[in-house]
Amino acid sequence: MNVFDPNTHIQTVTVVGLGGTGAQVARAVARMVVDMKTARLHIPQIVLIDPDTVEEKNVGRQLYTAADVGQKKAHVLMRRFNLALGLDISAIDQPVSAEKNFERWGNLVIGAVDNHLARRELARVNGAIWIDAGNHANAGQVVIGNTGDRETALRYLDGQNGRYPYLPHAGLLFPALLEPEPEVKPQPEPERSCAELVAAREQDVLVNDWMATITAQYVYKLLRRQPITSFVSYVSADGMSVRSLPICREELEPYLREESPC
Q1: pTM of the predicted model, to two decimals?
Q2: Which residues pair with 46 in a beta bridge?
């Protein structure tokens, strides 16, 4: 059994994007840290990043109430979790920036964003483990990796005695995530958020729950130093299934060709 072993002491867990998936991931991370604190384990700092303000369309579909409308999502969740769980979470209500928001080492970055510009910033963060969650109407994928350099990923295709210090991150596995949506109409519509898609009945109400659960499980394994044996998990809310690809040359190599299979 091959495992991901980045040999990183996680000092900070940063959740970027606090919508349908990200808010629930943030809640799960807060609960994990409380559990670690109770067990007298070293606990990482939690940072929440999202420039958006809570809107009426978010109420009920995300972890926000009518009283939260008009407030910054990052501050709403920071206050809620700090008061409820006795934590010291930090909040940033500005767009994510690779230069401003991250130190070089010791970071676990969780991306739950719905635009390519934010993902480009996440892809530029150096020395971090990046877990990315992205979904469509009723399905999506969760990717864990720590390098965007193709040569590095290829060098470690066979790992080292069953351990993989480097895995390709989402930007390397799925380059299209870093690019704007292709123009398919004479006057293309702007990218729409998950909340807007749900409101228009174009996205499954529960797909974000599926995404958050799988994302949080990767985080839990990292924080608890449990073996991580897969590098991507495909989620289907409609099919009620999760398919995780094992870490090995046979599964990794097709994604590292110049033309990705997906």
Answers
A1: 0.90
A2: 13
Instruction: Compute φ and ψ for 181, nearest 5 degrees.
Output: -60, 140
Which three-class secondary structure string do you get for the chain? CCEECCCCCCCEEEEECCCCCHHHHHHHHHHHHHHHHHCCCCCCEEEEECCCECCHHHECCECCCHHHCCCEHHHHHHHHHHHHHCCCCEEECCCCCHHHHCCCCCEEEEECCCCHHHHHHHHCCCCEEEEEEEECCCEEEEEEECECCHHHHHHCCCCECCEECCCECHHHHCHHHHCCCCCCCCCCCCCCCHHHHHHCCCCCCCHHHHHHHHHHHHHHHHHCCCCCCEEEEEEECCCCEEEEEECCHHHHHHHHCCCCCC
Q: Among 3.40.50.720, 3.40.30.10, 3.90.1150.10, 2.30.30.100, what is the CATH number of 3-179+191-256?
A: 3.40.50.720
Q: What percent of the chain has pLDDT over 90?
A: 81
Average of per-residue pLDDT across 216-242:
96
Quick: pLDDT tens for 37-62.
Answer: 999 999 999 999 999 999 999 998 89
Which two structure tokens, joined as six digits, stand for 102? Answer: 């991250």
Does the pLDDT value for residue 149 go beyond 70? yes
In 3D, which of 42, 7, 13, 21 has the Cα closest to residue 213?
21
Enter the tokens of residue 18: 């606090």
The whole-number pLDDT of residue 181 equals 77
